[in-house]
Amino acid sequence: MKTSYSWLQEYLDIQVSPKDLAEKIERSSVEVDSVTRPSDGMKKIVVGEIKSLAPHPDSDHLKVCQVDVGEDELSQIVCGAPNVQSGKKVIVALPGSRIGGNVKIKRSKMRGVTSNGMICALDEIGFEKDVVPKEWADGIYFLADDAKVGEPVFPYLGMDDYLIDVDVTPNRGDMLSIYGVARDLGAIYDQTPKLNHPKVEEVATPAAGKVSIDANKDLAPIYKMRIVENVKIQPSPRWLQIKLWNAGVRPINNVVDVTNYILLKYGQPLHAFDYGKVSGSTIHARYAQKGEKLTTLDEEEHELNEKDIVIADDQKPIALAGVMGGLNSEIDDQTTTVAIESAVFTPTLIRKTAQRHNLHTSASQHFERGVDRGGVEEAVDAAAQMMHELAGGDILKGIVTGASYDVKDEIVNVTLSRINHVLGTDLSLDQVTDIFKRLGFGVKLAGETYTVSVPSTRWDIHITADLLEEVARIYGYDEIPSTLPSGPTTVGALTEKQKLIRDSRHVLESLGLNQAISYALTTEDKANQFMMRESSETHLSWPMTADHTTLRMNLISGLLDDVAYNNARRVKDVALYEQGRVFYKDSADQVRPSEHEHIAGAVSGQLVVDPLKNAKNNSIDFYQLKGIVEKYLENLAIKGDVTFVATDRYPEMHPGRTADIMIHGHYVGFIGQVHPTIAEAYKINQTYVFELDLDALIEMPKDMDQFEPISKYPVITRDVALLIDKTVTNAQVLAQIQKKGGAYLKSVELFDIYDGKNLPNGKQSLAYTLTYQNPNATLTDDEVNQAFEKVQKTLTSELGAEIR
Amino acid sequence: MTLRDQLEKIRQERKQDIKDVVDLKKLDSLRVELLGKKGPITQALRGMRDLPADERPTFGQFANTVRDELQSAIETRRDELKKAMLNKQLASEKIDVTLPGKPVAQGQPHVIQQIVDQIEDLFIGMGYQVLSGPEVEEDKYNFEMMNLPKDHPARDMQDTFYITKEILMRTQTSPMQARTLEKHDFSKGPLKMISPGVVYRRDTDDPTHSHQFHQVEGIVIDKHITMADLKGTLELIAHELFGNRFNIRLRPSYFPFTEPSVEADITCFNCGGKGCAVCKYTGWIEVLGAGMVHPNVLEMAGVDSEVYGGFAFGLGPDRFAMLKYGVDDIRNFYLNDVRFLTQFSKKG
After folding, report:
1. What part of A 601-630 touches B (C-beta under 8 Å)?
2. Which of A69, B18, B90, B126 could form a disulfide with B73 if both were Cys (CB 3.0 to 4.6 A apart)?
3. Minimum CA–CA partner of B249 in chain A
4. Model confidence over A16-26: pLDDT tens digits?
5. Is the dihedral of CA A599, A605, A610, A614 positive or negative?
6. What is the ipTM for the molecules in this complex?
7. Does A349 touch chain B (CB under 8 A)?
8. For A375-389, A720-734, B269-283, which range has the lowest pLDDT when averaged over its residues?
9. Class of A202-403 in CATH
10. A705 burial via Cβ count (<10 Å: 0-12, 13-18, 19+)
11. For B210, how many CA atoms within 13 A lie in the half-sphere containing its CB?
């Protein structure tokens, strides 16, 4: 809400600058979005008086005006506005001036005639088009006749005021009015704001004879009305228009403007009906009936349902209660009798109605946050009195009440020790009493217990904690000391699971992969790729975009999106890993998915990029990524052997270059090359990926590290080269060697693979180094030879190997 | 010429020869020539028996001196030549130390992870547990138990991805407050925990909005936890993450789950508090929300709010990272451009 600095000054003695005031509001009450002055950025715009005008020789619509701008000679200005008139005081932008939109005005020639500046309309000097009064929408603006020629126009239009735009939190609806802000500032600056209360000058005719009200108390706990007769509709006086347009409200006429003014001042939304357009004499506040329609003041037609609250006459809805009036009862130039509604509607119902019809008005926003239930009558009184004063209306006697109740102060208790206990302060009884009094609260003190009576103007305060906040903010958060929690010591440490997750990240980073964080919401298609198990999808019921509709069931697809983003930007070398959750559902009926930690990687291009030309190309391949996964799993020290089992069961993976990863026979994930057709679909280069069930890895038993003495006895090695069928895998050879290796075989290492020229078709050459060691004695050549012999034999007999 | 004169001559002349030798091989032949069995000194010593007996000792002494001198001259020269050779070799081995080092593979933690880890470590050091909760939450924990009943207007502040009416993508990490409060056994001591994680909002992605981002929730509940403790803790976070020259100011705010509620601003990164366009000329930048846990939240979780109370705060690592490193578009964090990810290796 744009709060006028000068309007506040009508009630308070403010000694600080608007900027400092705004800072004070921000530190003590609510956030301030900005402090602005409508004249900011504008200069040399003055009052001018049109002394005479003549038609432009070369134009049908332009006029050549002689304007008194307070200089020795009249200034000639060409003006095209249809309403330009001799004898009027107007807004003149002098040569060298700056007007709205940062436009600079120069002396110029318009179709050959010199023009020393420009006569301006309101929207040309920074007014939003939607606040300019209709009568000034299509022409230049006439200032008051007593405006002094040559002086800046800003004070005459309220443009020299400062507007503090406060961003009111949902609990502080009271700050959505000038009176509310004035009260709060009163508390902050220890002043009593001089708020005036209306005296209503009524005529003898009772209002009750004109109207009766039938209000559903569930919808409108308070519903009151006044009738004002014989109003003369005309534009509001300038002071009122200024207050409205500075608040961003378009002045309309002296009746509608009054209701808007009262809303700004008191925070009580009012609505004025043209009594002459109401059928019958009963006003109903009721639920809408199905099928009823209402065209609101913005000329939009709404189909109503049974949950909407309407104000209706005997025949039809005449307003969407608390949101917007109906066009069918609008105040117009012919209106003579006005029914002013001042009511309280149930916040949740208003909120829903506003949402349903996507009609969020100033009134609905106020009702949603609540209004001062004790101020309903004062608001309607003030409005009626103003209509009397500004529109010459006769106020009928009495307020007609359809629903009401006795609004009482809220009684809340708090002790001084509680205040100091929670705030960490050392406030005295007097200090706290003073704060409550400044806030306008009633205070009774017994011992150290305060019984605080909170007036209806602060309807947000109900419990002790609310009072604590009041004390804290008025005392000042800056004054509260800084300490750290004391009390019993607690142990802070990561859990085993958290440590393993962190370690996992560190290991993969040390192996060259960068951590990525991708979107967990993806397309249904991608959510279903690279699946490690069967699962139903989890869909958003109302997604925002087609790209993010479904919860991921794999991490790889997100990483491939990342690879694609990089590839598209000519970043060819991408090495990423992600640690995060996937979401599984055992069946489509399961509502809430289970969440599982996974860890996955994707590498495309080179892991290590050596820019030197003679460095060899190290584009990622299966074995390089496998090395990373092996090293990672080795770091986790999971008990049991890690094996890689060829598989073609993933439709998104290369059928000949993919392996399931097993630990001690348990499936924990997979690794391999992304299928070329999938890579094409993602628009990525050749990419290798892996995904692991991190939860499973965390839960598997781990090897405990135990020192093993380093043997002082020498090792003996033997090399064996095999010519063997290509279908025989390294794993098979290793298994066979291990099986017959004997007690002293310490390790076997593949040191050469060859399947090139000079070999018979379908054959490959594999060469291994076997290392023997006896931890307790020196091995003899004989012992080793015997063992080695056995290995060679078994390889020949079991795997058909030819020893070379 | 006497023997002595001959020796004297050798001493004079050959010393210079030794000095003039330029390679080790020649030096070695010279050594053999001068000091070998057929060399002049050996010869001279052999000829000594022709001398009168009384001259022999003096001459012998003289011959030995000459031999020692030559020997030592050869040694010196040998050392010189060796050194020169080594220097020559070293000179030939000179490399361009400004050529690039051999690249090795090393990855980096995501910048948001760095911030989260930093926060975790800070709080672990102060005795907090780190807990993580489900990302797919129940309305009950995400809203209702956080004092946000179904029709609460503050729900409008958070646009929510619903899966069903009761199940949603958590919009905040706050539900972990409720979940932990429900479980915590206060007879075993205070509750001090932080809960980092991913949260989701129904937002259109743009430079300042992301439908997915991170939050770290913190809560401390005990018999005597104060607003002053909250202020001190928030100051500590600011100092840890940004440095000691950063200050915190608290402003009143509103969250349904805390009362009093505050928003914490930190000294503007850009201008250091003087006021600039980044901080809208206030010198301050809003970084987190906090407050004293609302009694309703405690009571709904079965905690006696008359006895126990404390503070809670929620901060956004994404926002912190944007402010700390001047990142101007939040989407950078989730697109994983390698050129972006690898910028944040420094822990400063």
Report:
1. 607-612
2. B18
3. A478
4. 999 999 999 99
5. positive
6. 0.87
7. no
8. B269-283
9. alpha beta
10. exposed
11. 25
Q: Identify the pLDDT of residue A603.
A: 97
Among candidate residues A169, A197, A171, A166, the one with its CA nearest the CA of residue A181: A166
Mean pLDDT by 10 residues, chain B (348 residues): 80 86 89 86 80 84 87 92 93 92 90 95 95 95 91 72 93 92 93 96 91 96 96 92 88 93 90 84 89 96 95 94 90 96 74
Of the candidates A98, A290, A265, A93, the residue with the CA atom closest to the CA atom of residue A196: A265
Q: Which residues of A are annotated as a binding site for Mg(2+)?
A: 460, 466, 469-470
Q: From CA A292, how far away is CA A306, in angstroms rounded?
A: 9
Domain at A410-479: CATH code = 3.30.56.10
The CATH architecture assigned to A2-37+162-189 reads: 2-Layer Sandwich (3.30)
**Which residues of chain B have a CB within 8 Å of the CB of A23?**
282
Residue type, A503: D
User: Rounded to an integer, what distance in angstroms lies between the CA atom of residue A121 and that of residue B224?
Assistant: 63
Q: Is B155 on the interface with A (CB under 8 A)?
A: no
Closest CA to A733 of A753, A716, A759, A715: A753
A520 touches chain B (CB under 8 A): yes
Residues of B in contact with A368 (CB under 8 A): 153
Q: Does B307 touch chain A (CB under 8 A)?
A: no
A81 pLDDT tier (thresholds 50, 70, 90)? very high
* Res B348: pLDDT: 45
Task: Say how far apart CA A770 and CA A720 lie, in whole Å.
Answer: 8
Q: What is the pLDDT of residues A25-37, one digit of tens each?
A: 999 999 999 999 9
| Beta-strand relationship, A394-397 and A202-206 | parallel
Contacts of B32 (CB under 8 A, 6+ apart): B39
CA distance, residue A449 to nearest chain B CA (Å): 15
Please write the tens of the pLDDT for every residue from A245-258: 999 999 999 999 99
CA-based nearest residue to B318, from B308, B328, B306: B328
Strands B129-130 and B136-138: unpaired
How far A534 CA sits from the closest chain B CA (Å)? 19
B259 annotated as a binding-site residue: yes
Classified as helix, coil or strand, A274 is strand
Model confidence pLDDT, tens digit, residues A302-338:
999 999 999 999 999 999 999 999 999 999 999 999 9
- pLDDT tens readout for residues A256-288: 999 999 999 999 999 999 999 999 999 999 999
Answer whether A251's CB lies under 8 Å from A236's CB.
yes
Of A463, A574, A611, the CB nearest to B338: A574
Residues ≥6 apart with Cβ < 8 Å to B46:
none
From residue A391, give the alpha-carbon distance in Å to each of A202, A203, A235, A394, B68: 14, 15, 9, 9, 134
A-to-B residue pairs, Cβ atoms closer than 8 angstroms: 259
Q: Is the pLDDT of residue A614 over 80?
A: no
In this complex, do A481 and B259 lie within 8 Å of one another by their Cβ atoms?
no
A341 compared with B102, residue with greater pLDDT: A341
Instruction: Please check whether residue A584 is in contact with residue A533, taking contact to mean a CB–CB distance below 8 angstroms.
Output: yes
Fold match between A2-37+162-189 and A410-479? Answer: yes
What are the extents of the domains in chain A? 2-37+162-189, 43-157, 202-403, 410-479, 496-699, 716-803
For the CA atoms of chain B, what is the radius of gyration? 43
Homologous superfamily (CATH) of A43-157 is: Nucleic acid-binding proteins (2.40.50.140)
Fold of domain A496-699? BirA Bifunctional Protein; domain 2 (3.30.930)
CA-based nearest distance A555→chain B, Å: 13
